[in-house]
Amino acid sequence: MLKNKSERREAWKVIFIFLTIVTITSTLFHYAIVNLYPSRIYIGGLMWCPAVAAIITLKLKGRSISSLNWNWGNWKYIRLSYFIPALYVLITYILIWLFGLGGLPNEEIVLNWATEIGLVGIGTLNPTFAVIVAITLLGTVGVIRAMATTLGEEIGWRGFFIYELRKVLSFTGVSLFSGIIWASWHWPLIVYYGGNVSLELMTFFIVIISMSFIMTYYTFKSKSLWPAVIFHAVSNVYIQKIFPPLTSKVKGTEHWLGENGIMFAIVTFLFGIYFWRKAVKENL
């Protein structure tokens, strides 16, 4: 954290410029998502707005794009950035199944899922094998594909934004402030796609701010933006593509399920608390 007042003022100016550009560019894609069809085409463009804002801000301030932490970093943090989000999604759905908030996958669910992702032949022969193949493909190829869009967000949020915030805020301040901004940036999508908007906004903010603490920790520890890119992609794939299709719905418990569900918010919040305490203990 910078001590010099003039340097701190300059850091806040850079932060303001970045957020202004993010807001302007993102507004165009938010409008397209809400008003044009098919709306999901524009989500990829939206996810690259933070990167565009970071690059423009760097250029305006006469700084090089190479100043971002492009290095791959320690493989330890790469592995953990895959394992941690996969683990918290797994815990979320184990708890959902244990408490009867959603049903365990049965043969019909598996076969339907296999059909949706083009594995109907394999699924018809052996549902268990179909699940293994599907999870393997989604957990590898699916994650790599997801990284193409999460890279755009993470160049901006973790590659640039949190390092500017670090000049003026503590780890706690960086994680909390960036998490609130990151969550707020998504709110038009929650309003547009959500069911119970008030509840989903609350759970989504808890999830995103909790993830912010974890991803900030791994970004600062690794001195690389790649763990955040992988973490973000894995979290999206597991909570959106893998576990929900393997869970049968139970009437009246819908608000407990999925990425905007109460259970996911509880689990990620506990993980966020753990990494916050870990970072404070390590004086990160």
The major pleated sheet works out as: 2 strands, antiparallel
The helix fraction, in percent, is over 70%
**Helix run count:** 12
In the sheet with the most strands, the strands line up as 1-2
Q: Let me know the average pLDDT.
A: 91
Structural class: mainly alpha
Taken together, the total number of domains comes to 1
Radius of gyration: 20 Å
Q: What does this entry show, briefly?
A:
This protein is an all-alpha fold. It is 75% helix and 1% strand.
Could you please describe the fold and organization of this structure?
It is a single chain. 75% of the residues lie in helices and 1% in strands. It is mainly α and 284 residues long. The chain has one domain. A two-stranded antiparallel sheet has the order 1-2. Helix 5 crosses helix 7, helix 10 runs antiparallel to helix 11 and helix 10 runs parallel beside helix 12. The radius of gyration is 20 Å and the shape is globular. The mean pLDDT is 91.
Keywords:
2 strands; 284 residues; mainly alpha
Strand and helix map with partners:
Blueprint: H1 5-35, H2 43-47, H3 49-60, H4 75-98, E1 102-103, H5 107-116, H6 120-125, H7 127-166, H8 171-185, H9 187-193, H10 197-222, H11 226-242, E2 248-249, H12 262-281
Antiparallel strand pairs: 1-2
Helix pairs in contact: 1-3, 3-7, 4-11, 4-12, 5-7, 7-8, 7-11, 8-10, 10-11, 10-12
